[in-house]
Amino acid sequence: MTALELDNLHDIWIVDSGAMDHMSNKLRNIYTLEQFDSLTFVSVANGKGSLVKGKGKIKLVYEIIMSDILYIPSFPFQLLLVSKLTSTFNCDVIFTYHKVIFQDQLTKKTIGDEFFFCIVVFSAWSLLFLS
């Protein structure tokens, strides 16, 4: 399974325009994890920090398209960074009342599955990377 393919409600990701990177609290989503040597934290706008255990790769769509992701086991959710997705796929993001769609700019085909009833976070979380 990849990040833009949904298997069940537990696999829903938050599409975030204010984050600094893709983030996952599930090790099963991460390939080639590299542990950090020093303590590194991410902090949300409310000032609370979460320990980043490492950085790895995540399969976004199809088995060959991968992107960097931070592994944060104590994080309450998983994030996909909008700007990173649009640059990786050269795509547009369409937000509707019930879904988020990633659409190839040239072919206009949908990339991955549509995110139905997805939570979209704009700059409310404003994640910071601290080390």
Main features:
Cathepsin D, subunit A, domain 1; mainly beta; single chain; disordered C terminus; 5-stranded mixed β-sheet; 131 residues
Task: Reconstruct the topology from this structure.
Blueprint: E1 14-16, E2 23-24, E3 31-43, E4 49-61, E5 65-71, E6 79-81, H1 82-89, E7 91-95, E8 99-104, E9 115-116, E10 120-121, E11 128-130
Parallel strand pairs: 1-6, 1-10, 2-5
Antiparallel strand pairs: 3-4, 3-11, 4-5, 7-8, 8-9
Using the 3D structure, state the CATH architecture.
Answer: Beta Barrel
Q: How much helical structure, as a percent, in the residues?
A: under 10%
Fraction of residues in β-strands: over 45%
DSSP summary: helix tally: 1
The total tally of domains equals 1
For this structure, the CATH topology is Cathepsin D, subunit A, domain 1
Rounded average pLDDT: 75
CA distance, first residue to last residue:
31 Å
Order of helices and strands: EEEEEEHEEEEE
Structural class: mainly beta
* Spatial extent as radius of gyration: 14 Å
